Amino acid sequence: MSASLLQVRVWRGGATGAFRSYEVPRRESQTVLDVVTYIQRRLEPGLAYRFACRVGMCGSCAMTVNGVARWTCRTHVAKAVVHDTLEIAPLANLPVIRDLVTDMREFFDKWARAKGRFVPTATRRDDFAVVCPDRPERRAADAAIECIGCGVCYASCDVVRWNPAYLGPAALNRAWTLVNDVRDGDHRTRLAAVAGDAGCHACHTQMGCTERCPKEIAPTASIAGLKRATARAAVKGEL
User: Phi and psi of 83, rounded to 5°?
Assistant: First the structure.
């Protein structure tokens, strides 16, 4: 095999599909998304995949690369390749629509079930709320607020694989940011939503979500915070 070629196996079809092999020229500073785009434009026009920004802002290009969930636009081939070979598959733990495209509805439906929507306590007629940046609640929210919903943590979570009802790290991380938002008016309902069998207490603290998050967020820490908050609420009779 020429050293200038990559051997690339790409998932084709739906849930019962199979990998198909391609040869792709290896380039300097080449990303995995570059490889997928080359295959779609030069070798397999029907290949389905998602991307948008190409700079790590949208998260839509997340795929499984050599068994690891990654943003393909920010993953250089040199970082992921094994013996000049790449295996590219759709994200795990989500239904496959076709090829490298997964159905994200389940992922975002769980955000809704975790009450991931801000519920204001003020109206447009009120003055802007002023939140001190040094408050412990503000700092806790700041540590978790940069999530862009790419699904990498969800695809990396073994608990989701074992228990499909589990809300997952992204939804619980979002709930934690709102629990710490002093402007939000739905804290009790939110804690009740994440305290059930499929909520924060189902987490086994295996850290896969934290290890894989491209934004370097620690959903494991957010989930631990929810465990403490729900326990306190239960002791107070608020759940």
Answer: 55, 50
